[in-house]
């Protein structure tokens, strides 16, 4: 910021009535800027745009959307169990939050995948905590959906839902696909094979960056599993 000296021609002396220490009235000369245009020019020279009316930007937001402290999320995740992540909706996108799933000791790998998947579905179907709700988190996944493992002839990482994937709301399907594709329930390879317990057809769904940023844009990309 550069301070420029104001020429005397742009100033004038104003007599201001004050009081001295004894309380007597006195007149003093005060040099002031002669015109508001000079002040405006100084402000402009500093890159500051002058305004003649006060500006009210309103109160500061009480909480940043889609942000919660680690302590708040850990409380919702539960006191024990295997730590996992699920995708909730916030500000029109999918956002990871921490949860936990209980698995009994000695559970074999095939059964373990189903137990984890069922725990994830349960977490997705629950109402977000008060802190998460205040921060803007939501879920579109209905509660009560169950999951089973592969039927005979299915790929080993198949998960079959009690509600057909293509009948789920698109936001709910995006949440489920990205949550499953991001965990050990399906091998953590960015995709998941889903089907219905009442139909043979299977599709491999992908959780792409586009799905995460805009889950309402459409159904997650998928391909039919051969032989299903």
- Please give the radius of gyration in angstroms: 32 Å
* Biggest sheet strand line-up: 5-6-7-8-9
Tell me, briefly, the overall form: globular
Give the total of domains. 2
Low-confidence stretches: 1-6, 25-63, 69-75
Number of E-type strands: 9
Topology order in helix (H) and strand (E) letters: EEHHEEHHEEHEEHE
Strand count, sense and barrel status of the largest sheet are:
5 strands, mixed
Q: Helix fraction?
A: 25-40%
Mean pLDDT: 76
Structural class: alpha+beta
Q: Strand share of the residues? A: 15-25%
Specify the number of helices. Answer: 6
Straight-line N-to-C gap: 72 Å
Walk me through the structure:
The protein has 228 residues and is α+β, with helices and mostly antiparallel strands. The protein folds into two domains: 1-58, no CATH class; 70-224, no CATH class. The protein is 25% helix and 25% strand. Strands 5-6-7-8-9 form a five-stranded mixed β-sheet, covered by helices on one side. Strands 1-2 form a two-stranded antiparallel sheet. α3 packs antiparallel against α5 (170-181).
Strand and helix layout:
Blueprint: E1 11-19, E2 25-33, H1 36-45, H2 70-77, E3 82-90, E4 93-101, H3 109-125, H4 130-135, E5 147-148, E6 158-161, H5 170-181, E7 191-196, E8 202-206, H6 209-213, E9 222-224
Keywords:
228 residues; alpha+beta; five-stranded mixed β-sheet; two-stranded antiparallel ribbon; 6 helices; 25% helix; 25% strand
Write a brief structural summary.
Helix content is 25%, strand content 25%. With 228 residues, it is an alpha+beta fold. The relative contact order is 0.11.
